[in-house]
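Would you be willing to look carefully at the protein I have copied below?

:::
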Amino acid sequence: MRYLLTSWIMQPILVSMYIANVPNRTSPPAILLRHSYRDGGTVKTRTLANLSHWPPERLEALRQVLHGHTAVGPRLEEAFTIIRTRPHGHVAAVLGTLRRVGLERLIAASARRPRALVVAMIVARLLAPASKLATARGLDEETLASTLGELLGVESADADELYTAMDWLRERQPRIEAQLARRHLAEKTLVLYDVTSTYFEGRHCPLAHFGHNRDGKKGKLQIVFGLLTTADGCPVAVEVFEGHTADPRTLTSQIQKVRTRFRLRRVVFVGDRGMLTQARIDEELQPVEGLDWITALRAPQVQQLAHSGALQLSLFDEQDLAEITSPDFPGERLVVCRNPWLAQERARKREALLAATERELTKIVAATQRPKRRLTGQARIALRVGKVLGRFKMQKHFALEITDDGLHVARDAERIGAESALDGIYVVRTSVPAGTLSAEETVRAYKALGEVERAFRSYKSLDLKVRPIYHRRADRVRAHVFLCMLAYYVEWHMRRALAPILFDDDDPAAGDARRSSVVAPAQRSPRADRKAHRQRTDDGWPVHSFQTLLQDLATVAKNRVCPTTAGAVAFDVITTPTALQQRAFDLLGVSPRLRGM
C-alpha cells in the first residue's frame, strides 16, 4: 500500500486519486482508494486499495493529504489555542518613536532598570494616563494592559519602585534639559515661554497654594508651571512654581536657565503681555546684553498711544499692519496690527457683557422700587451692585448713582465709543532690530505662542492628563510634571510624522498662502479642509485623531499561541497590520516587531 501511494503520488498531475464510497445493498458501503486517468479520449478509473477497515480519523487524514494538505492532524481551528492576547501596536508606535528620536539614550546612556521604569512611565502616560499604582498594574505580567512591561523587562515593578524611578529622574532633569537645549536651540534663536496652572488634590504639598485659577476648580489648591519651547513648539524645559506665584515672577529663573545652564548668550524671549511686563523688561531683560524679547502692549498702553497721537487709525485705511515709534517706549519697535475679525469678536463680547450687566442691574433697580420689602440703604444697594460688576467686569462702561433709596444706571456711551474705536487693534513690541526680524516676522513670532497653548491643552486635558495631582512631596510633583513634558516631547514628534493621516494640518505653508497677511486669522490648508470634510485623505486613507489612531494601533496584538498536540511549545505571533496601520508605522519609521531591552 505504501509503495502504491508513493508511486501514484509521483505520477504526473493528470493522475487524480480520491476516496470513493461505494454503497452495498445488504452490507456497509465499501471505501475504496481510486485514481482516474485519461486513456485517449476516455476517462477511466482504477481501484488501488480497499480502505473499508480503516478508522474514520485515518480516512480523514488521507483525504486531507489527497486534497493537497501538507500536514495531518485535527481541524485547523482546533489545532491551536490562543493562551493570551496583549495589545501591542500602540506600544510599538510610541516606544519605537521614543527610541528613534533618541530620548531613551538622552535619559541615560546605559540600559539601567531606572531608565526602563522611566521610559515605561513616559509611554504609559501617552497610552493610558493613570496613577502610578494603575501604571504598575498595567505593566505586571498577571494584570498587564499591553506588551509595555514585557518589552522593557519591568513586569515585576510596583508603585514604590516607580516612585523611586521618579526621584531618580528628578535628579537628572537639569542634565536632560541641557541636552534637549543643545539639540533644539541655538544662538539667536526664538524661545517661547508661557505658564499655566493645574489643580491639586489634597493640602499637604509645600507647592500647593490658592492662586489665579485657570481650571475653574473653585476651592482647590494649585501649582504653577512654566514651559520653554522652540519656535515651532518643541518642548525643551519645564519648571514648577508655588501655586500663588504670579506669571512675571517666573521669568527670572528662565533667564538664568537659558543663560547659565543652556549657555546661550543671544536669544529672543517671546512671552505674552501678562508675562513680559514693563517691570520685568526694565529689571531683567534690558540690563542683560544679548537678551532680546517680543511681547505685546496691554490695552491701557494701546489707549495711551492713541490719545498721544502716536497711533493713528488712518494707518489702517489701506493696510492692516504698520510700524511706529513712541517716546514712551524708547529704543523699541512697535508693530501695530488691526484684525477685522478680532474687532467683530470683541464688539460682540462687549455687547453681550454690557447686556448681561444691564439686565442684572435692572433687577436691583426693580428691587429698590417694589412696594413690599424694598431694597434700601446705600450700603446694601452698593453691595448688590458690586457683586454684579465684579462678575462681569463692566463697571467702566456704566454711570451709576447710588442713593439710600434708589439706583440709577446708564451706559457711558463716550467711554464705550472710545474703546470700540480700538477694537481689533493690538501692538506687538520688541527690542529686536529691524535688520534681524521684519515687522511681519515679529508678529508671526508673537503669534507662535499659540504653540505653547497647544502644548498646555495636550498637557492638561487632551492626551497626557497631568491633572489632578495627588503627589505630596515637592520633588515628586516636579518629577511628575517633567515626566509629562517628556511624554509631550514624544507626542510632538509623533504628531509631525503622522500628520498626513491625522486631522492635523500637514501642509501649513499652503494655509499661510491663503492668508491675506500675517495679521489675518490663521487658515487651514486646502488639504486639511478636504480631510476634515471627507474624513479621508487624498490617498483614500481614513483620517484619525491622535488618540483614535493609538486605539486603532492597539488592535495589533501579540498573541501567545500553543499547539494542541502533546509536548508542543507555545510561541508568540504578532497580528498582521492593516494597510492603514502599516502606513502609520511607515510614517513613524518604526516596526511593529519592536524588540525589547
Q: What stands out?
A: Residues 2-72 form one domain. Residues 340-369 form the longest helix (30 residues). Confidence is low (pLDDT under 50) at residues 1-15.
